[in-house]
């Protein structure tokens, strides 16, 4: 039996030009900048394809919203296809990549873009159950997959 | 004077540091914290260890007396003392439940319960200490009989929940088991005689139940009321007829009494009802809230109100809140920030109002 990729022919986009941010920005430490967060996650490699989440349009600058006052970060991503089984893995990658990136009291919610997944509600529930996330990240196989997505160099 | 007439403050007594990862649960050891017996508390963590803390009689501060390590190979998710305090059971993501006994100055693992297919999330001892219940992500609830010589025998594997079971809790007086789950329901399990356990009631959305994962449940002292908390941002109070429960008739139905909504804006992970009737909640907004029943609510329609909200009780999510049963108004809380905090509920006399 041949195991094919679930989505064998993803649409790949060119990488967006990156804006260099001044290093001596006086407010660099205070604010949680959505574009800064985006910089951390845009190059995460898709679990199935040798492209970044940005290149596959799974993530874009608009994916990140920050409410400084409440201390909330919302990341909305768009799986490449409606029945993507890797949605939860992408969620794990996002959480793992971001875990040390902002003040401890910030809360991160991760959701699939409305209408982008057939089991939207079920996927969102799993993405935001922190006990399930913690247990998944202790699973050696998932951990390895997440590590590959986070640390493999771009092709 | 009923609780509703008093003003309270939750005073932070101590911060217990030591765990190297988030602390998931805390459990007070029974029969400690009064009559000259120092209070003892167990905590368990994502660092794979369990710590036992004891209050010093002279200084009143808690010190770490033991670290139970090198047994669980993954997160220890919850811990529970047997009613006599002789044994401590710990549930782990490594799919096992370990049972520990205090031997001299240390704790020894005297038994390991295996059977769950994956993460074990909660354990509960029945009132007499003759039964132990466990539950986990494999959607099942297991009941174990406690035999002499620290032997444990599985007497039933209960299927029924359609998702991850988050917590199990025995009724405080009767051998009736309650479980709550990621499937949004609470299930009541009773025995038909002869180890024949089955689900006698399911509290679902249609019964005024929760609309998302139910994380915890807790009984009041008399056992005729139960509080549940959920990812749906509400606390719900349920009640049953005490006499019917005590008659041993397994089908004493539980009914929804009241829903406390609008108080929490993030997931509520823990709820615990004190012997005095104060309900504590621990939530993902880093706060601890206390609720009490209104003195002038109707018998059939009691009302609950917020006694106080402790904002920023921790620097991160509060995973567990537990009142000491010693009548000393001590509350322990555990957090993602890796600490446990000991609080004392203080009554403010006369005109003193707590700072907002």
TrEMBL record, chain A:
InterPro entries: FSCA_dom_sf, MIP18, MIP18-like
The MIP18 family-like domain, residue ranges: 37-111
Family classification: Belongs to the MIP18 family.
Protein's name according to its UniProt entry: Protein AE7-like 1 isoform X1
Organism: Coffea arabica (Arabian coffee)
Gene responsible for this protein: LOC140010426
UniProtKB/TrEMBL annotation, chain B:
Cytoplasm among keywords: no
Cellular component GO terms, alphabetical: cytosolic [4Fe-4S] assembly targeting complex
Organism expressing this protein natively: Coffea canephora (Robusta coffee)
Signal peptide: none
Extent of the WD repeats: 16-54, 69-101, 113-146, 158-189, 207-238, 311-345
UniProt KW keywords: Repeat, WD repeat
PROSITE patterns in the cross-refs: WD_REPEATS_1, WD_REPEATS_2, WD_REPEATS_REGION
Single Gene Ontology BP annotation: iron-sulfur cluster assembly
Coiled coil: none
Task performed by this protein: Essential component of the cytosolic iron-sulfur (Fe/S) protein assembly machinery. Required for the maturation of extramitochondrial Fe/S proteins.
InterPro entries xrefs: CIAO1/Cia1, WD40/YVTN_repeat-like_dom_sf, WD40_PAC1, WD40_repeat_CS, WD40_repeat_dom_sf, WD40_rpt
SUPFAM superfamilies xrefs: WD40 repeat-like (SSF50978)
Protein family according to the UniProt entry: Belongs to the WD repeat CIA1 family.
Pfam families listed in its UniProt record: WD40
Protein name: Probable cytosolic iron-sulfur protein assembly protein CIAO1 homolog
């Amino acid at each position: 039996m041949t195991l094919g990729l679930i989505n064998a022919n993803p649409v790949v986009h060119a990488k967006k030009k990156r804006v260099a941010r001044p290093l001596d920005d006086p407010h660099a430490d205070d604010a949680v900048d959505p574009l800064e967060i985006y910089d951390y996650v845009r190059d995460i490699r898709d679990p199935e394809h040798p492209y970044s989440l940005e290149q596959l349009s799974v993530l874009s600058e608009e994916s990140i919203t920050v409410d400084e006052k409440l201390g909330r970060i919302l990341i909305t991503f768009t799986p490449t296809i409606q029945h993507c089984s890797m949605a939860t893995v992408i969620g794990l990658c996002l959480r793992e990549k971001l875990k040390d990136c902002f003040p401890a009291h910030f809360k991160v919610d991760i959701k699939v873009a409305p209408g982008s997944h057939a089991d939207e509600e079920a996927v969102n529930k799993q993405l935001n159950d922190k006990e399930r996330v913690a247990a998944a990240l202790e699973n050696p196989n998932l951990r390895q997959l997440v590590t590959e997505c986070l640390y493999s160099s771009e092709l | 004077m009923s609780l509703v007439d008093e003003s309270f403050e939750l005073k932070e007594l101590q911060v217990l540091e030591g765990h190297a990862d988030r602390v998931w649960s805390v459990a007070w050891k029974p029969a400690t914290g009064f009559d000259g017996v120092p209070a003892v508390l167990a905590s368990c963590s994502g660092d794979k260890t369990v710590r036992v803390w004891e209050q010093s009689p002279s200084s009143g501060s808690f010190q770490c007396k033991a670290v139970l390590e090198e047994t669980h190979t993954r997160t220890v998710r919850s811990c529970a003392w047997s009613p006599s305090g002789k044994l401590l059971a710990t549930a782990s993501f490594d799919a096992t439940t370990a049972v520990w006994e205090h031997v001299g100055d240390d704790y020894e693992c005297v038994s390991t319960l295996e059977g769950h297919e994956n993460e074990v999330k909660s354990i509960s001892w029945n009132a007499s200490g003759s039964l132990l219940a466990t539950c986990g992500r494999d959607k099942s609830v297991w009941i174990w009989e406690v035999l002499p010589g620290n032997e444990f025998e599985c007497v039933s594997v209960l299927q029924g929940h359609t998702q991850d079971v988050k917590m199990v809790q025995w009724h405080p007086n009767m051998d009736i088991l309650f479980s709550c789950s990621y499937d949004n329901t609470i299930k009541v399990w009773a025995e038909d005689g002869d180890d024949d356990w089955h689900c006698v009631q399911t509290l679902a959305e249609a019964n005024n139940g929760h609309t998302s994962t139910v994380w915890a449940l807790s009984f009041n002292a008399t056992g005729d009321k139960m509080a549940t908390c959920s990812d749906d941002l509400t606390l719900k109070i349920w009640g049953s007829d005490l006499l019917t429960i005590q008659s041993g008739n397994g089908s004493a139905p539980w009914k929804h009494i009241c829903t406390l909504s609008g108080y929490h804006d993030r997931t509520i992970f823990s709820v615990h009802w004190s012997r005095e009737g104060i309900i504590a909640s621990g939530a993902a907004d880093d706060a601890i809230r206390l609720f009490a029943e209104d003195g002038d609510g109707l018998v059939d329609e009691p009302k609950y109100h917020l006694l106080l909200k402790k904002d920023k009780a921790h620097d991160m999510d509060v995973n567990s809140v537990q009142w000491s049963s010693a009548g000393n108004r001590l509350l322990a809380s555990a957090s993602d920030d890796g600490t446990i905090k000991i609080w004392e509920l203080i009554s403010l006399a006369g005109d003193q109002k707590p700072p907002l």
